Amino acid sequence: MVFMENLIHILYFVMAGLIGASFLKSFFKRKKNKGIVFDIMYAYCIIPFLLRILYIK
Amino acid sequence: MENTKKRLIIKIVILVIALAIAAVAAVDFWTLRHYKEKIVTSPYLTEVKWFSDYVPSLKNTWLDTPVFIFDSGVEGGTVFLNGCPHPYEPASTMAAYLMIENIEVEKGKVIIVPRCNFSGSTEGMAGDAYPMFFSVETEWGEEKYKIGDRYTNPLDQWPDPFTYVNYPSGQNLAYQDIRNLNRTYPGRENGTISERAAYAVMEIIRQENVDIAIDMHEAEILYPVTSTYVAPAKVLDREHFLETGEMVYVEPEESSLDIAMMAAMNIDQFLMKCSASPNTLHGLSHREWADWSDALTFLMETPEIFIDKITGPRTEDLMYTGSDEFLQRVTDKGLTYFPYEMEFGTPMWYRVGRHLSGAMEIINWASLFYPEKECIVSWPLYEDMEEIENQGIDSVGYFLKNPNAPENKDNVFTVYYKPVDNN
User: Fold this and answer.
1) pLDDT in tens, chain B (423 residues)
2) Min CA distance, A47 vs chain B (Å)?
C-alpha cells in the first residue's frame, strides 16, 4: 500500500508537469483567445504547476 | 512577419515576468520548507529517537521527526507530551521547546515530540495570507520560529480523496482531514504518510509503555472547546471490536476524565474548562489514543485568536500578542467561548505558560490518583513566566537557551526531518 501511495503521488507530479507543459504550449500557440490578456492568464497559470513539479510549493 | 515577431517578443516578456514572480515566491516557499530551528537540550536528555524508529517507512520522509527521551533511571510513570500536531498552533511547539531545554526529571520518564507534523510546519495555509515566522526576543537577539499549516504539506501527501474515511472506525470526514494528524489516529503502518506518522505516535505510546499522554493544541475562541482539557469518559472495548467489528464503549479502569476535572478545578491562574471526548468522533488523539493504548490521555487547548476567522490582518503581531478589536466586539456580544479582553490579548507567553502549567497539573494529579504512575519532573511554569513578564522581559525568550553560546555547544539539536550537523 505504501508503494501504491508513492506511485500515485509521483503520477500526480507527472500529471502536473504535463498540464504545465500543455499551458506552455498554449501560451505560445493557440487557435482561440489570442489576445494579450490571455497570454498573461496562461503565464500566470503556469506558475503553480512549475512550483509543484520543482517540489517547492 | 513584423507583427508576428513583435507578438513573440511580448509573449516572452510576459513569460519572463511570470517566471520572475514565481522565483520571488519560490525563494519564500523554499526558505520556509528548509528552515531549521535550533534548540539546546537539557542535561537530563538520555536518548533521541525518531518516528522512523517506530515506523521504518517514514525514514527520509518529511513526516519523520525527533523524539526526545528524558529518563531519570528511577522507576515511575512515563509521560508523553506531543507538540505541533497542528503546526499553525505554535504555542504547543514553544511549550515543548521550553520543556526540552529546561526539564529536570527526578523520577520516571518523559518523552517529548516538539514537531509531530514536521511536514505541516513547512508551508502556510492555502488562501490565508499570514506570516511564515514569528520572532521571540532573547538575550542574544531575535530567534525565528515557523508558524506552519494545519495539515501535512501536499508536497508530501497528494492527492486528497473526495472523502476521507478514518481507519478503522470507517467514519467519513472532510477530504482534507486525510492530511490532518489529529484526524488520522490510530493510523496505519502501511497507510498514507500522515496515517503512518499517527501510527508512529501510537507505537511510541505502546512500546514505551506510556502512562500519561498529553496532546498540546490551540483553538479559536469562537470554538467551544477552547481553553479546555479534553479526556475520554469511556473507552473502546478493543477485544470486542476486534472480534465483532462493533464499537462498544465501556468505563475505563483508570479515568483520565477525573484527573482532567481535578486539574481544571485546581488551576486558578487562568480559565481551564473540561470536556468529555465524544465516542462518535474519530481520529482525534483524546479518542483514539485512549481506545488503542492503555495510557491515560488528555488534549489541551489554549485560546489562539490568530486562527479565528474574523480577526483583522493576520500579522506576526497578532500571532504574538493576540490583540484584536473585532474579536473584542464579538466577545462583548457574548459570542465567544473565552472571556477575551484585547488589552491583555492572548500573548504567546500566556499560551505557552498555560501548556506548561496545564501539563504539570495533569502529571501531578495522575500521580495522586495512581501513585505507581508518579513522575517527578520540573520546568518553568505559568507563574514563573508571569513574573518575568511583569519585569518587562519576554518570558518565552528568557527561558530559551542560546544555541550559539560555547557552554551549550554540546547540547545543541537542530530540529529537522532528518539528522543534521552533529545531532
Assistant:
1) 678 899 999 999 999 999 999 999 999 999 999 999 999 999 999 999 999 999 999 999 999 999 999 999 999 999 999 999 999 999 999 999 999 999 999 999 999 999 999 999 999 987 788 899 999 999 999 999 999 999 999 999 999 999 999 999 999 999 999 999 999 999 999 999 999 999 999 999 999 999 999 999 999 999 999 999 999 999 999 999 999 999 999 999 999 999 999 999 999 999 999 999 999 999 999 999 999 999 999 999 999 999 999 999 999 999 999 999 999 999 999 999 999 999 999 999 999 999 999 999 999 999 999 999 999 999 999 999 999 999 999 999 999 999 999 999 999 999 999 999 767
2) 6
Count Cβ atoms below 10 Å from residue B391 Cβ, excluding itself. 8
Which residue in B has a C-alpha nearest to residue A48's C-alpha?
B22
Grid coordinates belonging to A30: 493557440
What are the residues whose beta carbons fall under 8 Å from the beta carbon of B146, sequence distance 6 or more?
B32, B35, B37, B87, B90, B121, B122, B132, B133
List chain B residues with CB under 8 Å of A5: 191-193
ipTM, two decimals: 0.95
In chain A, the residue whose alpha carbon lies closest to the alpha carbon of B156 is A9
What residues of chain A have any CB closer than 8 angstroms to a CB in chain B?
1-2, 5, 8-9, 12-13, 27-28, 36, 39-40, 43-44, 46-47, 50-52, 54-57
**∠ CA B320-B283-B77 to the nearest 5 degrees?**
75
- Asked whether the beta carbons of residue B14 and residue A1 sit closer than 8 angstroms, the reply is no
Q: Where are the alpha helices (DSSP H) in B158-237?
A: 193-207
Per the CB < 8 A criterion, the answer to whether B409 and B47 are in contact is no
Nearest to A28 among B11, B191, B193 (CB): B11
Give the residue from B105, B75, B283, B110 showing the smallest Cα distance to B210. Answer: B110
CA distance B106 to chain A (A): 41
How near does any CA of chain B get to the CA of A15, in Å? Answer: 11
